[in-house]
Write a structure and sequence with these properties.
Elements lengths: L16 H16 L8 H82 L17 H14 L3 H6 L1 H4 L3 H13 L9
Helix pairs in contact: 1-2, 3-6
Length: about 190
């Protein structure tokens, strides 16, 4: 144990097992000495019931003894929970909430950056083109690739045709437009 925790006087449980064990043995022998026959069925039932009653009484005594023995530990544990565990738990909950708030702020900033990117590629701030999950651990390139993939997979031939002049000069947008046009079944003729 550490220096901050000591046990001053551990409880010692004393019980006269010898006399109790002899008494139990005598009672059990007496019950078992009843001849097992139909005529003795009431006596057998009565003896069994008495043994169960005696055993339950001893178990009850044992339970009371255990609660007395455990009381110092239970008191110690309750105080530990109130003074130590509760402090850690409260601090953890506050930190968790603060971390979540900061991460939400970062996600919102990243979302705005991605919406700006979508607007630069498509001319609209279409939130349906955002990645399904904006993970803070994902790189900007990975998230932008997901957006380009969504643009390419979208059956949006009219949008691409209307916005061709916007994507000119942005390699990712040009590739997305080419993929989208090919996905519609139209032929793509590149003109300079």
């Amino acid at each position: 144990m550490s220096e901050i925790c000591t046990v001053e006087s551990p409880a010692v449980v004393k019980w006269d097992f010898t006399s109790i064990a002899e008494s139990v043995k005598d009672d059990c022998s007496s019950a078992l000495s009843i001849a097992p026959c139909v005529a003795n069925l009431p006596a057998l039932r009565s003896a069994r019931a008495q043994l169960n009653k005696d055993h339950a009484r001893i178990d009850l005594d044992l339970g009371e003894m255990k609660s007395l023995y455990m009381k110092p530990w239970d008191d110690f544990k309750a105080e530990y929970e109130n003074k130590i565990t509760a402090e850690y738990r409260n601090a953890d909950e506050v930190l968790k909430a603060e971390i979540t708030a900061c991460e939400d702020e970062l996600r919102n900033e990243r979302k705005e950056e991605l919406l700006d990117y979508i607007e630069s590629v498509t001319g609209t701030r279409d939130e349906t083109l955002l990645p399904d999950k904006i993970l803070l651990s994902a790189s900007a390139k990975t998230l932008k690739d997901q957006i380009i993939g969504k643009i390419a997979n979208r059956n949006a031939k009219p949008i691409i045709a209307e916005k061709c002049f916007i994507v000119r000069g942005i390699p990712e947008a040009i590739e997305a437009a080419k993929m989208a046009i090919r996905n519609t079944g139209c032929e793509l003729e590149e003109v300079e």
